[in-house]
Design brief:
Blueprint (H helix, E strand, L loop, with lengths): L6 H13 L1 E3 H14 L9 H12 L4 E7 L6 E7 L14 H16 L5 E2 H7 L10 H13 L3 E4 L2 E4 L1 H14 L5 E2 L6 E2 L2 E3 L8 E3 H7 L32
Bound molecules: zinc ion (2 copies).
């Protein structure tokens, strides 16, 4: 039984339509603000219930506010996603055919890579095998900037990763499209791109970097949670949400 959607829910949804994606702290602040404005009850542990109520009304429109983790800092994010189109075609209003072809190729590179990244050189080289109108170097660079600005990709030191928004929104597509290649995190069971891999060849489980940080925190001898072999990788630090640190 879905509860009634009130003014506070509507205000929250409107803000999400503007933002597209927000981290958990931002969602909590927004939830509080909406409840205060419309004088309704608000409890921090009820945020997911509040969002479920909105989602029950969004379902007939094939929309959903979906939660997912940032592979960068391990924080939870909420994104308003379109579920009607499970294909990259959802981007056709903003990108030309050959631009989408290059985005697909970038995804191929990222999915098939060990570390969940594609370098700008690899992406530029992949334009050679384009079947639609080939993008020039400057056009490719411009496109990559747009994909970063539109929050489909992230860029650091010339290497591209899929953004949190992209992973949350495209997960069903990626799972269907790359069935054999897609990696799943042993800890949180979500798809994983930037992760550590067990070096035991008969095991080979994957764990997201932030999940590694949390799972092995405080353990002196890290062992694989599946095969119990020594975990040889450097254990990243657990990053705190930016409530105390600067943004
Ligand atoms: Zn994980
Ligand atoms: Zn293992």
């Amino acid at each position: 039984m879905s509860r009634q959607m009130g003014d506070s829910h509507r205000r929250f949804l409107q803000a999400m339509m503007g933002r597209g994606i927000t981290d958990e702290q931002g969602a909590l602040r927004l939830y509080q603000h909406c409840c205060e404005t419309h004088k309704t009850q608000c409890a921090p542990d009820k945020l997911d219930d509040f969002i479920d109520t909105i989602n029950s009304k969004l379902q007939p429109m094939f929309m959903q506010i979906r939660k997912g983790m940032s592979e960068d800092n391990g924080q939870q994010y909420y994104a308003l996603v379109n579920m009607a189109e499970t294909e990259i075609t959802r981007m056709t209003s903003d990108y030309a055919d050959n631009e989408l072809e290059l985005f697909r190729k970038t995804m191929d590179l990222i999915v098939s890579s060990e570390n969940g990244k594609a370098s700008s050189t690899e992406i530029l080289n992949s334009t050679d095998s384009m079947t639609s109108k080939k993008l020039k170097k400057s056009e490719t660079e411009h496109l990559l900037n747009r994909l970063v600005n539109d929050k489909w990709l992230c860029e650091k030191h010339g290497e591209y990763t899929l953004s949190t928004r992209c992973i949350i929104e495209m997960e069903p597509y990626i799972r269907a499209m790359y069935q054999d290649q897609v990696k799943v995190c042993h800890i949180c069971h979500n798809i994983a791109f930037q992760c550590q891999i067990c070096e035991n060849p008969t095991c080979g489980i994957k764990i997201h970097n932030p999940c590694v940080a949390r799972y092995f925190k405080g353990r002196t001898e890290p062992h694989c949670p599946a095969c119990d072999d020594f975990w040889p990788h450097e254990i990243p630090e657990v990053r705190r949400p930016h409530t105390k640190s600067r943004r």
